[in-house]
UniProtKB/TrEMBL annotation, chain A:
Protein keywords: Electron transport, Transport
Protein species of origin: Pseudomonas linyingensis
Listed InterPro entries: DHS-like_NAD/FAD-binding_dom, ETF_a/b_N, ETF_a/FixB, ETF_asu_C, Rossmann-like_a/b/a_fold
Domain of life assignment: Bacteria
Name of this protein: Electron transfer flavoprotein alpha subunit
Family label: Belongs to the ETF alpha-subunit/FixB family.
Keyword Electron transport: yes
Residue span(s) of domain Electron transfer flavoprotein alpha subunit C-terminal: 207-284
Domain Electron transfer flavoprotein alpha/beta-subunit N-terminal: 27-172
GO MF annotation list: electron transfer activity; flavin adenine dinucleotide binding
One of the protein's GO biological processes: fatty acid beta-oxidation using acyl-CoA dehydrogenase
UniProtKB/TrEMBL annotation, chain B:
Keywords: Electron transport, Transport
Statement: the UniProt record of this protein carries the keyword Nucleotide-binding: no
InterPro entries with a match to the protein in the record: ETF_a/b_N (IPR014730), ETF_b (IPR012255), Rossmann-like_a/b/a_fold (IPR014729)
Domain of life: Bacteria
Alphabetical list of PANTHER family matching this protein: ELECTRON TRANSFER FLAVOPROTEIN BETA-SUBUNIT
GO molecular function list: electron transfer activity
Domain Electron transfer flavoprotein alpha/beta-subunit N-terminal: 24-218
Name of the protein this chain belongs to: Electron transfer flavoprotein beta subunit
SUPFAM superfamilies: Adenine nucleotide alpha hydrolases-like
Amino acid sequence: MSAPLKTREILALIPLAWGDDALDMTLGAAQRVAADAGLGFAALLLGNAGAEEGARRAAAAGAARICLAAHGGLALDAEPAALALAGADAVRRQPEANQRLLLVPPGADGEELAAHLAAVLDAQPLGRCSALSWTEAGLEAERATWGGRLRLGMTQADGSAVACLRLGKAELSSTAEPPCERLELDTVLPAPLAVEESTSGQRLPPVESARIVVSGGRGVNEQGFALLEELAERLDGSLGGSLPAVDAGMVPVMRQVGVSGKFVSPDIYLAVGISGTPQHLAGISPDTRIVAINKDPAADIFKVASVGVVGDWEQVLPELLRVVER
Amino acid sequence: MNILVLLAGVADVRYPLHEIRIDAAGLIEEGGQSRRQLGPFDEGALELALKLRDAREDCRIEVLVLGGSNNDNLLRSVAAFKPDRLRLLDLQPCRPWDARLSAAQIAGLIGAEGTPDLLLIGREFGDLDEGSLPVLLAARLGLPLFALAQYAEWQGEQVRLLRERGIRQQWHSVAGPLLATVTNDRRNKLRHPLMKNVMLAKKMTFDSVTASAAADSDVRLADLAPAREVQRGGQCRLLDGDVPSQARALAGYLRGEEEENAA
């Protein structure tokens, strides 16, 4: 028998050091799932920096309760394992719930955090969900599988769960003033893995936060990627690539866009020599305008692009660079 | 050094997906011609292990390949790289959508057989995992986790693992048993096996091992359906004219001049 509705809780757990986008996206997911389920949601903001602004945004998103959990030993770039231990400690200090849905920021870091949290709390990891709802049968989650070609629906009748859900940013329109509790955590954190660090030589900003992403695929060689990087720099954008381009060593894996890489939501995504597989398109926001350059007029990328050029990048890119230079 | 590599395989994206459905018992049933093969993250994990073994005679590779459709071909493709031991991993019960259960099953097996010095696994374990299973497996085994390794090498008696984070690259020297997830990178692109080893692999038979768990999954499989089509702008406006005029129009669009003019 499923738990009574009143003991179900949606809790958005957000590391503040991950920035406003992570905060607003997680609040957005909590807002939507809560509204559909006829429930409220609570926000657990983890970290030391920006707590006041975080609390203001959570209140504006309609959080019924806010908890600011600080830990003196959490670095701004803390590993997900440490964040999960501190976060789990804070979760255990929340009011009891028979079934709790923990939502964490979408994206690769959030997915790793979700799995760590599930391990520490012995909760069910639901992973990278495309939909979540709460019915009398329990939590119902939907996930893309088989490279984004099938969607799989799962039901969890009992027990808590941790999930990532990408539904867009929260609407920050509430004027309510929810209760805000402060927690000082003293969780014993694991020593971070010892690493030797050096710079990787990357000049461009991260691909996931750029207004324009210039991206190349299997059809572009090393010389072409040098032109794409130059173009990205001139447009104040960033550089991305498809999985085959990463495999070929044309672009680093941290710039891989797609179902197994980064999710990007720029205004414009310039796809050069990219065929447009569902696996690649899954990494691009539906709101993004795609501009395609491809010599194959039948390439699937033209089915989703707003503007396209059927042509060879070896001719188009140098000319485009000349024009953008002026 | 004993290296254990866990491989799951993924459906080949170059071909239409084979028939997959939920059977009467609520399990995944795969029919038709499955083309499960090593995925890019599987390949990276296997190649890193092979590179480490190339450099040291006392380095031993054991591989477990997840059971499922197209078992036989997948095992033979791995056997062609001549791991020191290769077995089929049979999960009982098999609930690949539940990373918590699968990780508990695999951890139980590894715990019983002895923890390796280095456990390599792709950052995603098969077509139904999005990265949860390796993290949960490390937690179950009590192993430190080095996520998204891109390269591995020997430095003296120690293995060093490399990953890139933002504008930083990080090297970790492996000081004790550790689980590393591996992501795709040009430095771990899987080599081609020798033809003679491919031929030998065709004649091999393989052992299997069962990883079971007393408890069943808390998550019931409810539905399996084609992916929803994502609605995008589309209606592509193809730029015509010669290359210079196409480039001018494209530059204007990228700079947002076209929208400003329209406004």
